[in-house]
Amino acid sequence: MEVTRVENVTRVYKIGKVETRALRGVSLSIESGEFTALVGPSGSGKTTLLQLIGCLDQPTSGYVFINGKDVSDLNRNQRADMRRGTIGFIFQFFALIPTLTAYENIEMPLLLIGQNGSERHKRVMQLLEAVDLPDRAHHRPDQLSGGEQQRVAVARALATKPTLILADEPTANLDTPNGKQVMEIMTRINQETGVTFVFATHDPRVIKYARRVITLRDGTIVENNGKKAS
Amino acid sequence: MIQLFKMAFRDLGRNRRRSFFSALALAIGLALLLLLAAFVQGEMGGAVDSTIRLQSGHLQVRAKSYDESKTSLKWEDLVENPDQITAQIASLAPVEVATPRLFASGIIAVGDESAGVRIYGIDPTSEANAPYREGLVSGEFLTADDRQGILIGKPLADKLNLNVGNQISLSINTSNGDVDEQLFTIRGIYSTQTGGFDSTTVFMPLAKAQAITQTENHASTIFVLLKDRAQTEAVAAALQSPNYQVLTWTTMNELLIQTEDLANGYIFILYLIVLGITATVIINTLIMAVFERTREIGILAAIGMKGRRIMGMFLAESSLLAVGGIIMGLILGWLVVAYFAKYGFYIGNMGITGILISDTIYTDLTLKDTVTLTIMALVVTLLAGLYPAMLAARMEPVEALRGGE
Question: Could you tell me the strand order of the sheet in which A212-217 lies?
Fold first, then answer.
């Protein structure tokens, strides 16, 4: 089943009178359960494409569909509704709320979808187990290592059982063992739950985990080599 | 909701010193407002009381043609046979005390120095004169049959360097337009703590004042104090007569009442200034918080938090600041007000003609003022939080996420 489809999408940023074309007519389709890498050099449009698929931004032209629904023209609140519960994000920086504990950070998306207390607690504990951090539940981000923080971010992205997880350079700020651990957790979760992962990277050690690699350069897809053999 | 307040509380704790000083700014602002309100209440409330007690009474009955500004002593301008009218007025149930008084103007001369004075011819035995009797700082009060005694205020005694027992020469206008001069002995020196009154008013027994001004058995006014100020209009109506004018304390003190209105107007402007400064501090703190947390706002938006909820988070912060600041402000304000309520605030002789303002103001904080100002401070703080909160809520997630990198 198709999770997302992008049709001839462009994204032009205007800074003063200067126009920057970040995406120049990109089309692709992602099926449920994929574990796909968007690769390419800096400025190739990976992050912009993730932001459009993730309903964080709107295309200048073209269409973006999530679970068959056109999200290209949704307003700010409708996009927030679409993100909540449908899409999970993992960012390059360890994007946790510093005043909340690991437990509370994971709990936040569940609070936003209004899940009740006991189910919420059960789900948060299950996720802490899944990312091997049950004993770190009540630590704040500044008491966790970079790898641990990124694992909490993975758990938070999975909290509402979204159909699609988007990760932007998830290992860029991690050392090799921590990067490997995060990628192994993501792979395991993808295999166990079937949730779709799309991640942007230019790290060859990360690309090897992908079953499909889409290569971008100067805002266009230059190689879409289909699914790799797993 | 609980989660929003929990986050807001922890966010305020991130920069404790800044949060504390912002709340303190609100606290000092509120304390200042309470002090201003208590000061005005103490001053104006006190001024009305002093003016009634010392000068106007609740009511005065005068001859139809009496003109206060001229201090007329012509017989046709005075109340004839005042004791009889006084007794009639005093017999009314709401009346606490009534007493005849004769006013005249004169000049006191001592050596080379002189001072213009207003002479009160009073019945020394009347309870209406208790404020003067109780204000005696040295010497004795007058007696009804004293033919040479005079009572002068402390500021005048200090100015002319006079003491009890000293003799002074008093030139006084008489009913036929002449000026009579006589020597008087200072029996006592009084202070009502009201410089404007004490520095110009001297007392002598009514009989002596009538004799020297040649106004036999006449008085300028019948001074009336009531048991309850609210009865003024009713008693005034009962006393209406074609031969007399009946003046109430409100008509006699129009200037005071206008001044009170004016003071309330000024004080409101001061309130706005203080609250404006406080609001600026709060806005500044929250804007700094919004900019420092731009990336977090982006993260929260990315995981699906709507603008309304992000706004709520910052409004929760401003309301926590407001509650903290208001609690501190109420404590601080009450302490300062309690101090000045006990020890007073010396302002000296304001020297405003027609208004008797005490030299020392004792603050008087009413519950109404406390509640009104607390609500004003709360509303202003919440309004001040609105702009930074809207700023946070309107951030585009993509830009907010980029902003923190």
Answer: A87-90, A164-168, A196-201, A35-39, A212-217, A220-227
The residues facing B248 across adjacent strands are B59
Q: Taking Cα atoms as reference points, which of B119, B127, B178 lies closest to residue B149? A: B119
Establish if B302 touches chain A: CB-CB under 8 angstroms: yes
> Is pTM, for the whole model, over 0.80?
no
Using DSSP's 3-state secondary structure scheme, residue B138 falls into strand
Per-residue pLDDT tens for B138-150? 999 999 888 899 9
Using alpha carbons, select from A179, A158, A156 the residue that is nearest to residue A169: A179
ipTM of the complex: 0.87
Predicted confidence at residue B9, as pLDDT, reads 84
β-pair partners for A15: A18
Is the dihedral angle over the CA atoms B353, B356, B358, B364 positive or is it negative?
A: negative
- Cβ pair A89, A54 in contact under 8 A: yes
User: Distance (Å, rounded) from C-alpha B25 to C-alpha B278?
Assistant: 6
pLDDT at position B126 is 92
CB–CB contacts below 8 A, A to B:
67
Q: In what order do the strands lie in the sheet with A18-31?
A: A18-31, A2-15, A61-66, A69-70
Is A138 an 8 Å CB contact of chain B? Answer: no
Nearest by CB to B398, from A51, A80, A109: name it: A51
pLDDT for B351 equals 56
Are the C-beta atoms of B89 and B61 separated by less than 8 Å? Answer: yes
Question: Residue A30 has which token pair?
Answer: 């992602």
What are the pLDDT digits (tens) for B35-93? 999 988 887 777 788 788 888 899 999 998 888 778 888 888 899 999 999 999 999 99
Regions of chain A with pLDDT less than 50? 227-230
User: Under an 8 A CB cutoff, do B307 and A80 touch?
Assistant: yes
- CB-based contact, B399 to chain A, within 8 Å: no
Distance CA A198, CA B164 (A): 103
Question: Taking CB atoms and an 8 Å limit, are A84 and B401 in contact across chains?
Answer: no
The answer to whether B292 faces chain A, any CB pair under 8 Å, is no
Cα B190 to chain centroid, rounded? 22
In a mutational test of the B interface, the residue from A81, A97, A154 whose CB has the highest number of chain B CBs within 10 Å is A97
Q: Which helix (H) or strand (E) holds B185?
A: strand B179-190
Mean pLDDT of chain A: 88
What's the one-letter identity of residue A127? Answer: L
Task: Render pLDDT for A55-101 as a digit per residue (tens, 0 to 9).
Answer: 988 999 999 999 888 988 888 888 888 888 789 999 888 788 888 99
Residue A84 near residue B303 (C-beta atoms within 8 A): yes
- Whole-number Å distance between alpha carbons of A109 and A80: 12
CB-closest option in B11, B300, B398 to A57: B398
Helix (H, G, I), strand (E, B) or coil at A42: coil
Contact assignment for A56 to B398 by CB distance below 8 Å: yes
Cα separation, A63 vs A27, in Å, equals: 9
B contacts of A96 (beta carbons < 8 Å)? 299
Residue ranges, chain B, pLDDT below 70: 349-358, 403-405
The two three-digit tokens of residue B52, written as one number = 């009634």
Strands, E, within chain A: which ranges? 2-15, 18-31, 35-39, 61-66, 69-70, 87-90, 164-168, 196-201, 212-217, 220-227
